[in-house]
Design goal:
This protein is α/β, with parallel strands linked by helices. The chain has helices at about 1-15, 20-40, 50-80, 110-125, 150-155, 175-195, 210-220, 225-230, 250-275, 285-300, 300-305, 335-345, 355-365; strands at about 95-100, 135-140, 160, 200-205, 205-210, 235, 315-320, 330, 370-375, 375-380. It starts with a helix and ends in a 16-residue tail after the last strand. InterPro entries: PGAP4 (IPR029675).
Length: about 400
């Protein structure tokens, strides 16, 4: 018996043994290479939070402050060039209206200027392909005249304001209900002012990615022709990176994860067989590489895998939506009218903010909604308008 065990060990423990190869690969990958390469990747399991979170958060705040100043100089320069674009009598019906909802926040960061300057730059860069797009500001500050950044932007973009000075205070209106009412106001006014085919409602700390208009063009003119997408209640263009992992209670993610393993398992097995001079694939080795690739993609971070889809608009994924969050929401005109009717009948509160309220409608009203992956905006606002936090962190 002992002799047989020794023979088996000798067969498995030789350097030419697949067991030794795959064991060594596992140890080197997950014990050495991945931790060394990924320890600064914010959304990876290998991220060394204790080492990097505080300095990275501070670095992000400083960088964001610089971007806020750059956005301020962008519009001051346009002002000097007398490049005013605001128009209160534009009767053109746009294909896409981008509505930026804004309140007064940390002055140093100029969040709304960052968002507006980026959209303005990308629209100019897009040229003729984006002639059917318009940009609208919706100021929901309690005292609209106190929002200094909006005063500057009103020289360049159409502006609507929700002046609440004469309104009777609603005793039930907590901060979450107020946020919902502001959202309803901006969505409704966008429809009344322009009657667009689509409305992109963007919060004032959601900076658009470089390719946003190219991807939206593809979605609006090609992908949304499918009935199940055309009738959706809304499309999210942002989902928090920390919630994008495969290991999640969302069936579509699990299927995607299994599909990755089924694809990479045979591919990596073929590479291994070729490198070791083996003539055929072995199913145990295929299974190993399937599990290996699934584990590596999850531990490194699905977010970083999704970034590969930015290579072309056709590679962007549209999957069923999840609860959080609302930095950038795309509505068709009919779905915007439905959403307005639904939201007016809901009361928001702690634990039931507008994002959860919208998500709840999918079950109570039999609606569908989707999220576009990867994200088409960057959420830069570390200072929330709802929750006070004097020492914000990236995680």
């Amino acid at each position: 018996m002992l002799h047989q065990a020794w023979q088996l060990c000798g067969r498995w423990c030789r350097w030419s043994s697949p067991f030794i190869h795959l064991f060594t690969l596992t140890v080197v990958t997950f014990g050495v290479l991945a931790p060394l390469i990924c320890h600064r990747l914010l959304h990876s399991y290998f991220y060394l939070r204790r080492w990097h979170l505080n300095p990275m958060s501070q670095e992000f705040l400083e960088q964001n402050q610089q971007e806020g100043q750059a956005a301020l100089h962008y519009f001051e320069k346009l002002q000097m060039q007398n490049a005013s674009e605001a128009s209160g009598s534009d009767t053109f019906q746009p294909l896409l209206l981008v509505t930026i909802i804004t309140v007064q926040r940390q002055n140093d960061f100029h969040y709304v200027l960052q968002v507006a300057s980026r959209f303005h730059y990308l629209l100019q860069k897009c040229g003729a392909r984006c002639q059917s797009h318009r940009l609208l500001l919706c100021n929901v500050e309690s005292d609209p005249s106190s929002h200094q950044d909006v005063k500057l932007l009103s020289s360049f973009f159409p502006l609507i304001s929700r002046d609440k000075t004469g309104e009777k205070a609603d005793p039930r209106a907590n901060q979450f209900e107020k946020e919902k009412q502001d959202y309803v106001f901006c969505l409704e006014q966008s429809l009344l002012a322009y009657n667009p085919e689509y409305i992109l409602v963007v919060e004032d700390d959601a900076v658009p990615e470089e390719e946003i208009f190219a991807v939206l063009q593809h979605l609006l003119l090609a992908r949304f022709s499918k009935p199940y997408l055309r009738d959706a209640l809304y499309f999210k263009l942002y989902h928090p990176e920390r919630l994008q992992r495969y290991f999640n209670p969302e069936p579509m993610r699990i299927l995607e994860w299994l599909g990755l393993g089924m694809f990479m398992g045979p591919v990596l097995s073929w590479v291994y067989s070729w490198a070791t001079g083996r003539s055929s694939l072995s199913w145990p080795i295929v299974l190993f590489f399937a599990l290996y690739s699934m584990a590596l993609s999850e531990l490194v971070g699905r977010h970083y895998m999704l970034e590969l889809r930015r290579l072309a608009p056709t590679l962007y994924n549209i999957v069923p939506v999840t609860e959080c969050c609302t930095p950038a929401m795309l509505f068709s005109a009919p779905s915007a009218h439905r959403a307005l009717g639904y939201l007016r009948g809901l009361h928001c509160r702690q634990g039931f903010a507008k994002d959860i309220a919208l998500y709840s409608l999918l079950h109570t009203k039999g609606e569908n909604a989707y999220v576009v992956e990867p994200n088409l905006v960057r959420h830069v606002g570390m200072y929330s308008s709802l929750r006070l936090n004097n020492n914000p962190k990236l995680l």
